[in-house]
Every structure is written in C-alpha cells, then in structure tokens.
Design a protein that fits this description.
Blueprint lengths: L6 H6 L20 E3 H8 L3 H9 L6 E3 L2 E5 H8 L13 H13 L11 H15 L4 E7 L3 E8 L2 E9 L3 H11 L11 E8 L6 E11 L2 E9 L8 H4 L3 H11 L4 E6 L6 H13 L7 E5 L10 E4 L8 H10 L4 E4 L5 H12 L3 E6 L4 H10 L4 H7 E13 L5 E2 L4 H14 L11 E2 L11 E12 L2 H8 L4 H10 L5 H10 L5 H8 L4 H9 L13
Parallel strand pairs: 10-14, 10-15, 11-12, 11-13, 13-14
Antiparallel strand pairs: 1-3, 2-3, 4-5, 4-9, 5-6, 7-8, 8-9, 15-18, 16-17
Helix pairs in contact: 5-6, 6-7, 11-12, 12-14, 13-17, 14-16, 15-18, 16-17, 18-19
The protein binds zinc ion.
C-alpha cells in the first residue's frame, strides 16, 4: 500500500461528509435471539413437544452450526397463535473458514475443542487479533446484509472478514456471554471484559469490549490489552539516544514534572509505564503512586488508584489524597482540568517527581497549553523540567521494502522541516526505502511501529521566553538552539536510515507545522498568532 497523503490533499478535502440515506430495503435489526433452552422455558413446554412444533413448522429458527437460535419476536408470535415471520438460514461455516485460514496463514492451527461453532467463532476472532498484534477490533453492521470484521494493525484499520448479517445477533450474544454482559439487553450500550488463554503459548488475553446499538444492529468494538505493555522498558521505547539520555537524567532528578504529550494512540501510556519501570527498578524503591482513568495494566511496585467519578473520586480529590500519602513519585494519566494541573505542578514544586500526560501536538504547545488552561506561567516554567512530544510511525517490513528515492514533494517538505528543526540535511545519509507488501506483512508493507519524539528541556532561556509570552515559533526556535531535535527531524532521520518511509513520516508530522510551511512557501514574516495544531 502506498499512501500518498500530503498535507494539501488532506486540507482540500471537503470537511462535510456525504450522508447516505438509509435504503428502505434494509431489514430492521433482528433483535434478540434465544437458544433452544430459553425458548422451551419461555413456552413452558417439554423438549419432545417443542421438537414436534418445530417439525410441524409452527416455529422456525435458524441453525448456526449445530445449534438452533430463535427470534424472540417469532416465539411471541407463536404464543399468540400467529405464523412465524421469517425462516432464517444463515451459515457460520464461511466465517469460521476465513478465520481458520487466516490463523493458519499466521502459523497457528486451531486446537481440538468441543465448544459450539459460535463460541469458536468468537474465540477465533480474538485469537487471530492477538496473533496479528491488533490493538483493537470492530464488528460493524453494514447495509446489504453483511457485517464487517476489521482489525487495527499498527494504527490502521484493515478488513479481515465479512459475515452474514443474520449471524450478527447470535455472535454479539456470544460475545456478551463471554464478557459477562446482559444478553437480553440489545437496546443500550454495554461494556464488559473477556479474559481467555491464547491457544499458542497459553498467554493470557485481556479484552475490553463495548456493545453499541447502531441503526442496522448492534456494533461491537473490542480493545486488546497487551499484558507485556506494563513491563515495557525505556530501551524498548526506541527513543533517539539523546532523547533517552534526557529522559533518564530528569527521571533521576529529585523533583520536577516530566510531561508526555501527543494525540491519542501515540504511545504516551507506554512511555509513562516505561518511566515508572525505570524508577522502580533500582535497589532503593521510592513510593510511587498513580492516578489513572481507568487502570488498565498492573504495575508491580506501585500503588495505582483508579478514578471513579460516580462515587466522587475524580482526578482532583484522588490527587489530593495521594499527596497526603507522602509519595516520592506521582504519575497522573491525562490532565483534563485546571485543578489537576495546578495540583500536579504544586506537587512538583514541593519536592515530588511528577509524570503527567497532555494532549497537544508538540512539546512547545504543551507549555502554552498549560498556561492557556489557567496555570501561572512562572509556575509552569519552574515546575516543568522536560516535555516529550511523540508519535508512532510504522516500520517498513524488513522482508519486502525496497530502496527508492521518495517522491519530490516529500523530499522538498522534508528539507524544509529539517531546516526548521536544525537537522543538517546535506550531511544526512539518505538510505530511503519504500513499502511493497508481502505475505510476511499481510501485504501492507509495514510491520510494527516505532516512536518518533522530541524532548524539550525547560532551560533558563526557554523558561524566560515562556514567561515573557513568546510565540510557539519563537519557543520552538529557542528549544532547537538549545539542542532539541524536533519530532519531524527525528522522523526524517529514521526515514533516511530506511526504517520507515518518508511518506509515512510526512503524513504523521506535516500538520504540526502547517503555519510555518505556508510561510516558508510564501516567504512571509513569522506570524504572532501561530496556533499549536490539534489538542
Ligand atoms: Zn512485507
């Protein structure tokens, strides 16, 4: 797959999506499906009588694998003496075959099992997702009688299988059973969790699943929690050597705030965990407390406190209690309000090491974001030691990528961004490579991801610029002159090493610098009103 998303093609797109009318031929959602035991109980009859009614065609069901399923509506019609509405025939075999073939393609066979086809289908969907290292999966009802199964692989959703829409209620019901949700509730959102063994190494799989009643039927999304995520080290985070040294230096400092920033899914949580693992690995283990919403992975050697808004345990109240517990190190998951931010900065100034995460596009915008949220600029400058802004970019598949000079627009853009970020373009080795796609990488051309980052130290010059209200561009220029390698330059360097493609990096970073790039193009003066991009 060769993605050619340039910043201009992104912006030229109309922001208003075309809304498709719901065609009248789309059948109403099937509603709740019952198994045979439930129908016999509902009809207050015996199994032989029930079979007689079934043979006589008074009641009709759908056979999924070897098991019967019945629409609640049809059973109610039968009780009123009415004819069954629809005879459903849906075959689960094609779905099972697709999943098995995919799993076999990934080098895993299916274990012998006496479970029903439905249970198997759900477990195969989860196991295949785990095998392919998907972060989340989605089953979505579509028009024309199908539902799609998609996995998010290295940050991009990929279609895996289509299933007969008539199977959807039974499959969703099976997911609900495994997730300990209410199987009779089909009209409200539900959340549950499934824990099961992967068939391969007996590894524990942990899946958080959400059911949503959509207009065409129930949609399902599941997040696969990776048990190895909690054990990640700074080494595995793959930061550039200079950035890693800065992180390690400030983690060892007795007080001050280290901020991780970036959009959702940029590896901030992994980075925070890697830092905490580094802190707790030493012979003298400090008291580490975390405030998280929710706690998804258990970190040994720490006290993790979840947010429970419904019982009054919000970030502010939990953080105040944490501070009274006399911790040495505090980690606060995403900062969402001024109270939490102020408490975190004060904690840093009163002798704590504080790790927080924010949601800004780059390191300098994190500084400005804290001030915009209402924090005192002097407090921000004094309490903040280091800001790491990061993204994840896909790594080229080592089996199929080819050496090729990137397209001219990408090279021009990269050159401009290198100049902005102080990266000597001419001295850069240029071993650029491009994706192809092979069996190994499921024809995607990429496999796995790595972090690209910038680490901004709040030096006296940066602090002075911040407190006198410098612009984003000025702040960035000062940070670069103080030794920061920008996100874009870190990405360009990795592309030049042939680890990722230049297009992949440009797609990820170009929106951050859109204001500067347009000025570079027009040769205009630096704007005073540069905004920080997405928040
Ligand atoms: Zn490949």
């Amino acid at each position: 797959m060769k993605a050619k998303i340039t910043s201009s093609s992104r912006f030229n797109k109309s922001p208003v999506a075309k809304i498709q009318p719901i065609p009248s031929s789309v059948p109403a959602p099937i509603g709740e499906l019952l198994d045979m035991r439930e129908v016999i109980a509902m009809l207050r009859t015996t199994r032989p009588t029930f079979y007689r009614w079934l043979r006589a065609g008074k009641l009709k069901g759908t056979k999924i694998g070897r098991q019967w399923r019945f629409r609640r509506e049809d059973v109610e019609r039968f009780l009123k003496g009415q004819e069954p509405q629809i005879d459903l025939v849906a075959d689960i075999t094609p779905l099972l075959d697709t999943l098995r073939k995919r799993l076999k393609g990934n080098g895993v066979g299916e274990e012998e099992s006496h479970e029903s086809e439905l249970v198997r289908a759900v477990k195969l969907i989860i196991r295949l997702a785990a095998q392919m290292r998907a972060t989340d999966l989605h089953i979505e009802p579509q028009p024309k009688g199908v539902a799609t199964l998609r996995y998010r692989l290295d940050g991009v959703l990929q279609p895996i299988a289509e299933l007969d829409m008539r199977l959807l209620p039974a499959i969703v019901k099976q997911w609900k059973t495994l997730a300990a949700c209410n199987v009779h509730e089909t009209s409200r959102p539900q959340e549950g969790r499934i824990r099961m063994k992967s068939s391969t190494a007996g590894e524990e799989l942990d899946v958080r699943v959400t059911f949503l009643p959509a207009v065409l039927g129930e949609a399902l999304s599941a997040v696969l929690l990776d048990p190895r995520a909690a054990r990640i080290s700074l080494e595995q985070m793959d930061y550039a050597e200079a950035d890693k040294k800065r992180i390690q230096h400030w983690l060892g400092s007795p007080w001050g705030t280290v901020v991780f920033t970036g959009p959702t899914g940029c590896g901030k949580t992994s980075a925070l965990y890697a830092c905490l693992n580094q802190i707790t690995a030493g012979p003298v283990r400090p008291k580490v407390m975390t405030v998280e919403d929710p706690v998804e992975y258990l970190l040994p050697g720490t006290t993790q406190v979840p947010i429970r808004a419904e019982s009054g345990m919000n970030f502010g109240s939990v953080l105040r209690a944490v501070l009274r517990s006399n911790p040495d190190v505090i980690m606060v998951g995403e900062i969402r309000d001024l109270e939490t931010l102020t408490l975190s900065l004060q904690a840093a100034l009163t002798g704590h090491r504080v790790l927080i995460s924010l949601h800004t596009s780059e390191a300098v915008t994190a500084l400005q974001r804290m001030i915009d949220a209402g924090a005192n600029p002097f407090t921000v400058a004094d309490a903040t030691r280091l800001i790491i802004a990061q993204r994840l970019v896909r790594l080229l598949c080592s089996k199929c990528s080819v050496a090729r000079k990137p397209a001219e627009p990408f090279l021009t853009l990269a050159q401009k961004l290198a100049r902005l970020g102080g990266l000597p373009w001419d001295a850069l080795p240029k071993d650029f490579r491009e994706p192809v796609g092979c069996k190994e990488c499921n024809l995607i051309g990429f496999q796995g991801r790595t972090v690209i980052a910038e680490a901004l130290e709040v030096t006296p010059r940066v602090a002075a610029a911040l407190t006198r209200g410098a612009t984003i561009m000025d702040l960035r220029a000062i940070a670069v002159s103080e030794g920061m390698t920008t996100l874009a330059c870190d990405g360009i360097r990795r592309a030049a090493q042939g680890r990722t493609s230049l297009a992949e990096v440009m797609k990820t970073v170009s929106t951050i610098y859109s204001a500067e790039l347009s000025e570079v193009a027009s040769g205009g003066q630096q704007s005073r009103s540069a905004k920080g991009g997405q928040m």
